[in-house]
Amino acid sequence: MTGNYNSFGLIDRRQRVAIPLEQARELFENQRYDPGGFLAFGNGKSYGDSCHNDQGTLIDMRGSDKLIEFDANTGRLTAQAGITLSSIISIGAKHGYFLPVTPGTRFVTLGGAIANDVHGKNHHWRGTFGCHVERFELLRSDGSTITCSPETNARLFEATIGGLGLTGVILAATVQLMKVGSLDVLERIRPFRSLGEYFSLAVQADADNEYSVAWVDQLASGADAGRGVLISGNHADNGNFAVSTKPGRLNVPFDLPISALNYPSLKLFNAAYYNLKGRQQKLHLSGYQDFFYPLDQVLNWNRLYGKAGLFQHQSVIPEAAAPSVIPNMLKATRDAGQSSFLTVLKRFGDIQSPGILSFPQAGYTLTVDFPNRGRRTLGLLAELDRMTIASGGRVNPYKDQRMSAAVFKAGFPRWKELDQERDPEINSNFWQRTALAGAM
């Protein structure tokens, strides 16, 4: 069957061939393969082409979304890979548990969270999602189902966490949830006038808080360059575990003909946001959806970028280099005349992921996104790549649609170890474009 299996960036839109999991299992058992290979597809929240295999067939995992077991005494949950983080929150909240690590959307699947080894606002305390995975079942193209854990098939376990779905199809997984006193978060907001001030605040904010993230006014220049707000928080102890099942408060029902996120609109928005947040410095209670998932409140918000889609660029810069490199990266975006709606700065800790290809490393991660304006945008992204690699950093694969093979391999020198564990019948656009470029 063919259908809409676009990624979240909406850059390369087309109808794609996909089959349900049970059909893929039957093909594997009978060794009937697509010459272009296969790739599991979750909920399409990756921004680029790591979730696509346009030469082969996608395996639609969204129907495989059942809870298998939950231990209310320990917080250990086992579920099929297609279950969303939103559903896991609903299950755990009834017994006082929350996700130990969550990205900025609750609509990713469990399998996608493992395959991309997602991170959140508390990497400095909890590491990546993969740090909390105890085991999973992996379907290989020879029809076998393999149990993987740190003790059993450990090498395949390490390759699959952050392995972009290339080692096989994750069928189900066991993860350890985190006991909390409430889904609510006691939030504190501190405005900063410059990136230098942010860097002087960030280490202590991480030491004092489970969660910490900064929003930066990317368009501010001159004396205001680098201004923003540092948002930190810890779970409250008020016992509120009410879960909202509403998918979003607002909806963008169709693609805008051009991006609504242009320089004039974002200049006004950024100034208003900075001033509004700056008046909320008193410790206050924030609901979990507003704190962790503010953009989930606007369904299909990616359509605001227009029919051409959006590019998101996420880099991590080593701690020593960040205070000089990140201001220069933001200056490069302004000099290029590009306006970023989502400009986020976070500090990664030194907790090692079990994953071979995990993105985070100790340092600071900068996320910017831009409407796709063709060559001009691509030129800026290439310059941000160059600055990242020159600093000893790396670019996030699951946010990427266009990084070169050289940039990928410089940032992830262990990529060959993953390729050695890759299932021979699994492939992706991203892997073809980067790791296998010139090697086929």
Q: What layout of secondary structure does this protein have?
A:
Layout: E1 2-4, E2 15-20, H1 21-29, E3 38-41, E4 57-60, E5 67-71, E6 76-80, H2 85-93, E7 97-98, H3 110-115, H4 123-126, E8 133-139, E9 145-148, H5 154-160, E10 169-176, E11 178-179, E12 185-192, H6 195-208, E13 211-216, E14 228-235, E15 250-251, H7 263-278, E16 284-286, H8 288-292, E17 298-299, E18 310-317, H9 322-335, E19 344-348, E20 363-371, H10 375-390, E21 394-395, H11 405-411, H12 415-421, H13 429-433
Parallel strand pairs: 2-4, 3-4, 15-17
Antiparallel strand pairs: 1-2, 5-6, 6-10, 7-11, 8-9, 8-10, 12-14, 12-16, 13-14, 13-19, 18-20, 18-21, 19-20
Write up what this structure looks like.
- With 440 residues, this protein is α+β, with helices and mostly antiparallel strands.
- 27% of the residues lie in helices and 23% in strands.
- It has 13 helices and 21 strands.
- It has helices spanning 21-29, 85-93, 110-115, 123-126, 154-160, 195-208, 263-278, 288-292, 322-335, 375-390, 405-411, 415-421, 429-433, and strands spanning 2-4, 15-20, 38-41, 57-60, 67-71, 76-80, 97-98, 133-139, 145-148, 169-176, 178-179, 185-192, 211-216, 228-235, 250-251, 284-286, 298-299, 310-317, 344-348, 363-371, 394-395.
- The strands form five sheets. The chain has an eight-stranded antiparallel β-sheet with strand order 16-12-14-13-19-20-18-21. Strands 5-6-10-8-9 form a five-stranded antiparallel β-sheet. Strands 1-2-4-3 form a four-stranded mixed β-sheet.
- β5 (67-71) and β6 (76-80) form a beta hairpin.
- α9 packs antiparallel against α10.
- The longest helix has 16 residues, at 263-278.
- The radius of gyration is 21 Å and the shape is globular.
- The model has no long low-confidence stretch (mean pLDDT 95).
